[in-house]
Design a protein that fits this description.
SnoaL-like; NTF2-like_dom_sf; single chain; globular; alpha+beta; 37% strand; Nuclear transport factor 2 family protein; 6-stranded mixed sheet
């Protein structure tokens, strides 16, 4: 069995930004299930790697790549096959000015991911957000911006 370490958790997230499916499959199960918090069109369960990667693609498209993720801490229970990471996201819509504070234009949240691992791969993940993060996410993914105009993804 592949050892579950903080470094393996970091490598799993790093694999996602490569776009290299072979690399991603080293860490993520083809049949992964991942639950996103909120009350918007991208909330709920994503079933299968393609479904999950599609959601990640929507986030990248909405930001034009103007998003950063910082891992603040990682806890690992090797025996249980579970990792928990605390993270911070900071991103802007593609058209937003740097420093924008509107939740329709800037996504700033902190939360946790609880990941269940099997045979060295993530088979299930759940995300939870701190403070008013769910509200921030709902507004970010709203189809209508602060100016009343619809966003397209």
């Amino acid at each position: 069995m592949t050892e579950l370490t903080r470094e393996r958790v970091a490598a799993a997230y790093a694999s996602l930004v490569t776009g290299d499916r072979e690399q991603i499959l080293r860490y993520w199960s083809q049949d992964v299930r991942f639950q996103m918090p909120g009350n918007h069109q991208y909330a709920g369960w994503f079933v299968g790697l393609d479904d999950y990667l599609s959601k990640m693609g929507k986030l990248m498209a909405a930001t034009g790549g103007r998003i950063s993720s910082e891992t603040l801490d990682v806890l690992v229970d090797q025996e249980a096959g579970v990792s928990i990471d605390v993270y911070r996201l900071d991103g802007y819509r593609e058209h937003a000015k740097e420093g924008a504070t509107s939740p329709y234009e800037r996504l700033q949240v902190e939360g946790v991911h609880v990941l269940r691992w099997q045979d060295g791969r993530i088979v299930e993940g759940r995300s939870a957000l701190f403070a008013d993060g769910v509200t921030q996410g709902n507004l970010w993914w709203s189809p209508v911006g602060a100016d009343g105009e619809r966003y397209e993804y």
